[in-house]
Amino acid sequence: MAEAIQKKLKGEVEKYSQMQKDVSKGVSARQKLETQLAENNIVKEELDLLDITNTVYKLIGPVLVKQDLDEAKATVTKRLEYINGEIQRYEALLKDLEKKSEQHREVLSSLQQEFQKAQGLAVGKV
Amino acid sequence: MFEKLPLSQPLACPRSCYAKCAWRREVVKDCESRMQHWKKVSGDYDTLNNRLKTLPDQLSYDITVPFGPLAFMPGKLVHTNEVTALLGDNWFAKVSAKQAQKIVSHRMKYMKNELDDLSKTAKDFEARVGLAEDLENISPGKGDYVDIREDARNIEAAVNKGRQRTAHKPNSKPKFDAMLDLKEENEENEEEAEDGGSRKCTITEEELWAKLDELEKLEQLEDEQDRLCDSADMNGEDTSSLSSEEEKDGDAAPSVNGLSLKPSRTSAPHSKAPPFTDRKPEGDDDEEEEGNRLPTIFFSHAMEPKKVRINTGKNTMLKFSERKEQKEHSKRKKKNGHSHHELHKITTPVDIYRLFVDVKNGEPIPRKSILKSRSRENSVCSDTSESSAADFEERRMVGRSFSHDEATHSDTSDGITEEDSPTAVPLHHASRFEAFSGTVVEKDPMPSAVPHLTIAPPALPTILERKQEEVAPDIAPPQEAPKRVSKFKAARLQQK
């Protein structure tokens, strides 16, 4: 009895740790997006500082590709939109994961109690 | 086995405190390290900004270029005002040094915000850590004693409070410039006791005096500022009054310093008169005066070259204009009372400004330099109706009468017009003798006068004059030159 519960518990714990990993992954990805958002915001603001006389380049691989200033601005705004979308997506994902992990924790705690009981019983029996 | 399970074991309160405390300490540490990082970066940006400031000072710099990992070689840094800036996210922009500085300052602002945020959070967490530590201090003992200890702590806290008060003055001083604030600060602050205790009352007394001195200085400064403000206001009034006085002087000028000012004024009428006459032949002189008084300074400049010219007697036109001046002087003298009336309306520079704008009705830019405006008016006058033409002709007649000889005068005018625009010569002849309503007639004599006024600078009038003369013969047929000279000579002789 105790053995079975222990096995189950182990499996659950593994799942749970996997979930925690996912959460941390999501968090780090989100953080990355956050930094990118900040960076792109800065880029946008600094692009606004420039005028038509300035040439704008985008580093693509090893080469600097000349770009139109307006085009660059449009690209950056698009990118900002995309990043914002991504952040929202990750936010939802993280919330979901949080909920799941919460449930999982409950399951785990109940399992643990069961296991303890079983062990106690076993000990008592012994 | 159980210990491995996360969160399965309900943690004891002190342990959670520890954990939280550790976590908070971690956060504080993290904040501090990040602040360190930002400070370093901002230092880098500072140096970069300084470099960018001085970089475009020279066209090129001699530098040693790193050549591979080991070698350097002498080189030159060129295009010092061209910088390729990485904006982030692999975006680059070619910018001038100035723009680069703008970008740098933009980033500095961002970093400052970041630093402020970090320091705020760090402070926040530090306070919490302190609180947690206090809690820890309580919790290690048994539950029974906790209450007693709390009492003791309270006393300690009270003691701390006292210490803090004395200690806090030095800290708070630079921030607050008012004593009241200082006191309030002392009362308010209860947290920063740790470092406060070390500083003693002796210091605080000194500080107090220093503070007092500072406040005194501040007061003085404020007083001075107030005074300055007042004086500034006064100055403003003064200037206005001065200008108005100047105006009055201008009014009085015809009688006061007639020689210097009158010609300056009349120099304008010479070109300005037509538009005025166009409007209202009677108010001609008054308006001229008003228009002229405003720019007296400029005209006095412009007039001198003319004077010189007159002295040299190279241009009969100018001579004639002088006559005209005299005539106008006399006119003005006659009408002086009237003109005074009109002028008294102008009490401030604003009025003059308005007048000026009015004079150049429809002109969008009333501030154009007077010389320019004059030339423009000339062009206007060339377009204007017969009244102006008639006026001009009248003047010309006067000039003729002075020049004694009609034939010579016409000759001279021909010579001048040819100088200015040789191609237009035939037109002149025709229009001049046919009718005065012809616009071309007006245009040509005026430009001939305008260049003298506009081009000749106050510093080297004669030289420029000569230049003009020199240039003109180049364009004009060579035959004209000798003719002219003879005319001048004749005119001079006649004058004598």
Automatic annotation (TrEMBL), chain A:
GO BP annotations listed: chaperone-mediated protein complex assembly; protein folding
List cellular component terms (GO): cytoplasm; prefoldin complex
Coiled-coil spans in chain: 80-114
Single GO term (MF): unfolded protein binding
Which keywords are on file for this protein?
Chaperone, Coiled coil
**Which InterPro entries does the record match to this protein?**
PFD_beta-like, Prefoldin
SUPFAM superfamilies membership: Prefoldin (SSF46579)
What does this chain do? Answer: Binds specifically to cytosolic chaperonin (c-CPN) and transfers target proteins to it. Binds to nascent polypeptide chain and promotes folding in an environment in which there are many competing pathways for nonnative proteins.
Tell me which family the UniProt entry assigns to this protein. Belongs to the prefoldin subunit beta family.
Stored PANTHER family: PREFOLDIN SUBUNIT 6
What quaternary arrangement does the UniProt entry report? Answer: Heterohexamer of two PFD-alpha type and four PFD-beta type subunits. Component of the PAQosome complex which is responsible for the biogenesis of several protein complexes and which consists of R2TP complex members RUVBL1, RUVBL2, RPAP3 and PIH1D1, URI complex members PFDN2, PFDN6, PDRG1, UXT and URI1 as well as ASDURF, POLR2E and DNAAF10/WDR92.
This protein's name? Prefoldin subunit 6
UniProtKB/TrEMBL annotation, chain B:
A Pfam family cross-referenced in the UniProt record is Prefoldin
Q: Which GO terms describe its biological process?
A: negative regulation of transcription by RNA polymerase II
UniProt KW keywords: Cell projection, Cytoplasm, Mitochondrion, Nucleus, Phosphoprotein, Protein phosphatase inhibitor, Repressor, Transcription, Transcription regulation
Subcellular location per UniProt equals: Cell projection, Dendrite; Cytoplasm; Mitochondrion; Nucleus
Q: Which CDD domains match?
A: Prefoldin_URI1
User: Which stretches does UniProt call biased (Polar residues)?
Assistant: 378-388
Q: Where is the composition biased (Basic residues)?
A: 329-343, 484-496
Q: Which SUPFAM superfamilies match?
A: Prefoldin
**Protein family per UniProt:** Belongs to the RNA polymerase II subunit 5-mediating protein family.
Q: What does this protein do?
A: Plays a central role in maintaining S6K1 signaling and BAD phosphorylation under normal growth conditions thereby protecting cells from potential deleterious effects of sustained S6K1 signaling. The URI1-PPP1CC complex acts as a central component of a negative feedback mechanism that counteracts excessive S6K1 survival signaling to BAD in response to growth factors. Mediates inhibition of PPP1CC phosphatase activity in mitochondria. Coordinates the regulation of nutrient-sensitive gene expression availability in a mTOR-dependent manner.
What is annotated about its quaternary structure and interactions?
Answer: Homodimer. Component of the PAQosome complex which is responsible for the biogenesis of several protein complexes and which consists of R2TP complex members RUVBL1, RUVBL2, RPAP3 and PIH1D1, URI complex members PFDN2, PFDN6, PDRG1, UXT and URI1 as well as ASDURF, POLR2E and DNAAF10/WDR92. Interacts with POLR2E/RPB5, RUVBL2 and RUVBL1. Interacts with PFDN2, PFDN4 and STAP1; the interactions are phosphorylation-dependent and occur in a growth-dependent manner in the mitochondrion. Interacts with UXT.
What protein am I looking at? Protein phosphatase 1 regulatory subunit 19
At the highest ranks, the source species' classification is: Eukaryota, Metazoa, Chordata, Craniata, Vertebrata
* Gene designation: uri1
